[in-house]
Amino acid sequence: MQRKDWDTYFMDIAFMASTRSQCGRRHVGAVLVQGKKLLGTAYNGAPMGVPDCSEAGCMLVEEYEVKKTDVGEELVKKQRCVRTIHAEQNLLLFTDREDREGSTVYVTDQPCWTCANMLANSGVTEIVFHRAYPKDSEKVEALMKARGISFRRIGAYEPPPGTITEVTQ
């Protein structure tokens, strides 16, 4: 058996963390790494002690965003659950700022705009993800470039068996 490279190893751990999620729409896991040292894991879900989506249902809100295109403007409808704290947000809540300085976040899914903003101010210098999140992709990539944060997708990656759930946008 061939030894896994570090990206695969840490992404596997992020996918394992995602199995703790009770979200019916998307299971997301995130890990914080400094060098080769694992400093924290997190997943998306309701706040502690509060019924989660599997118990109380999703709290979906619809938002509209104006997106500029080559031919004008386009109104884009977005739907999100406000019951759930995202994996990246939980990771930031449960790790120390000193540990995040110069570190890498491995996350199963490309961060949304809100999480990208939070990560951009968190001290991390690299974000590695597997699944794309097209709704916010362009502006998140532009933000990371502007902040000088390495932002890369691992495309040729196979998550561990039993960790993938059906993803709904």
UniProtKB/TrEMBL annotation:
Instruction: State the SUPFAM superfamilies in the record.
Output: Cytidine deaminase-like
Give start-end of the signal peptide: none
Please list the cofactors this protein needs.
Answer: Zn(2+)
Q: What are the transmembrane regions?
A: none
Instruction: List keywords of the entry alphabetically.
Output: Hydrolase, Metal-binding, Zinc
The residue stretches assigned to a coiled coil in this entry are: none
Pfam families membership: dCMP_cyt_deam_1
InterPro entries from the UniProt entry: APOBEC/CMP_deaminase_Zn-bd, CMP_dCMP_dom, Cytidine_deaminase-like, dCMP_deaminase, dCMP_deaminase-rel, Deoxycytidylate_deaminase_dom
Domain CMP/dCMP-type deaminase residue range list = 5-151
Family indicated by similarity:
Belongs to the cytidine and deoxycytidylate deaminase family.
Protein's recorded name: Cytidine/deoxycytidylate deaminase family protein
| Taxonomy of the source species | Bacteria, Bacillati, Bacillota, Bacilli, Bacillales
